[in-house]
Protein 1
Amino acid sequence: MGFKKVLYRKKIKELPEELLPREKALRYGIESLSDVELLAILLGQGTKDMNVLGLADKILQGKSLESLKNITLEELLKIKGIGKAKALQVLAISEILKRIEEEEEKLLFSSPDDVYKHIKWLAKEKQEKMIAIYTNTMNQFLGEETVAIGSVNVVNVKPRDIFIPALRYNAYGIILVHNHPEGECEPSKEDIQFTQMIKNLSIQMGFELLDHIIVCKKGYFSFASNRAI
């Protein structure tokens, strides 16, 4: 009998702590979990013959969570141990994935207001952060990355942390956003110098720095709107 089969037939409480999804998430962070482990947490319980890890593995069949977008009620009910209640749990995940995808497809940054609506949560952060948003030639959202956390000022941000993801996303445009947790939205001297440096590097590397937005509790400052970029 294979290792997985033995593992999945054991009761969850009989497994070593390092194999338990909840304990692993609490110790190492939710991002450390595999797709099977994430689904197991969402399902909660397994069946009489199979623990929740085995059930999650059986549903995914070696595929990623993204594959659940196309799963149907009929397909789920054919899986031994899946009744209507658990099938609806999985279908709820499927619908969430679809809606997130639809939202990302619609996300278009045609003005600084659009960016601010997307990223205004950053104004509530107590720690300084810089986010890089990547777009295509039509200013449609491709992805975003946190490129710095806890920097005293932007001079500590490494340009490579901005441009390496841009290459990975095959991006055209870059929008930088960072917060002033305790201050005003107005850019500092360092903010202005940093923005000019990134603009020049962007041109050299074939990208376009579309904007640099500073958010604070009172709103935001856009370099593009103020013709400072």
Protein 2
Amino acid sequence: MDCIFCGLIREDTGSWVARGPVACAFSPLDPLAPGHTLVVPTLHYADVFDTPPAVLTEVTTLVQRVAEAARNVLNASGVNILNASGPGSEQSVPHLHFHVVPRWMNDGISTWPAGRSVHHVTGDLGARLATALGSGRDG
């Protein structure tokens, strides 16, 4: 397998923002905004479905730290945290990654979907999801 993110980590060629034993963060080649950062696990996991919970915790903790740094250092008024997992999600690199995109009022970009899915599923979807999670609707 030839994963671009694994190559960056292995060859130490990323523009590193943070490096740890479980998670790391780097600047992408074509950032959406100043301070745009990718946060990935150091070992290869394809997506959120493939990643062990302990690793996902480390990765999302680093996501939170990067977001705080963007707010404090870049004076961002918010961040978008973006992830695509699985073939139906438009995931472009099959290595779990989160985009942390600093945002400012009237910055000229929108990361919110403009349309609605044409896919239809019938029934009480909240109840079906609650059942799959093994819990009632209240928790």
Protein 3
Amino acid sequence: MIEVTNASKVFRSRRGGAPVNAVVDANLTAQRGEFVAIVGESGSGKSTLARMLLGLIPATSGSITINGINVDQMNAAQRKDYRRTVQAVLQDPSGSLNPRKTVGRTIGEIVRLHSIARGRDEVHAKVLEALELVGLSPAEPFIHRFPQELSGGQRQRVLIARAIVLNPQIIVADEAVSALDASVKAGVLRLMNGLTERLGVGYVFITHDLPVVKKVADRVYVMKDGAIVESGPTRQIFDDPQHPYTQSLLASELVLESVL
């Protein structure tokens, strides 16, 4: 389980400007097999909180723990294990994949780095298995392709394959489907749900796409100006929102749907 307890992140200017409170006293839990969504407008602090969950930036105050271990106080061995336990799938697959590396090399390097398999044949088999799991089948032809030879949906599936090859407990997905068109987005979401059923992986899903959240999330956290202003089961948030900001978000979505 990931547990966030009163975690804040303050960015301070080197030139003496006013500090920016990007995340303010956030409390959140996420565990294996659960689909947790963090929603809010741009600038609400969602992505900063995601980077904190991934251990990429430390909390200014409060704590983030994984199975009781503080992320900011891990030793080298614990941090390496954390990298396997909590993986990331980001918005831009083109920017997350090296255009000079084939799909097989991209995933294979992760397998070797974390000693998931040894020897060329074992690594090759592990890469094929991950690609099959994300629906890139038959997998063999995809191993030799470069990112620019794939569609946007296929590149996103490669990112998911790179994440799940380590058998993580939780994947932090930051706007992971926002750049995809509707049909491709639906396919990737079905894949993510299927991986929860097959592998037990959980998600922290950062997005502004409320229809997606309503369809796939178990629990929702609503962020505004760095603070979590409301949280609860998905049905409760959508059917009976309590905070004025949550109410305005849902009302805006309804107006947009009626216009479209």
Protein 4
Amino acid sequence: MNVLRNSVRLIGNLGDDPKVRKLDSGKTVANFSIATNEIYRDQNGTKQSETTWHRLVAWGKQADIVENYVKKGSEVAIEGKLTNRSYDNKNGEKQYVTEVLVNSILLLDKHKA
């Protein structure tokens, strides 16, 4: 059996328009975030809602799809893998980022005729 050990599947809505850029190498990269919502009842039976934000990075063909068809509010289903990276901020402090590297994206918005 082929088991994917680092696999993420999310369905959510974009909180802002994606940021797409072309690198000197000619590759396209898209950075965007989606919100996932979980609705549940707490121990008192009161309905609760929790929103989690996820940072995503798409490259190549997936980035082209994001650039051409996805905007703020779009509902998407993505599959990818978790990645971690670090960088030094403007104060020289190390910052850590967890992102989902998008392998595939499915557009879930209802198209209007």
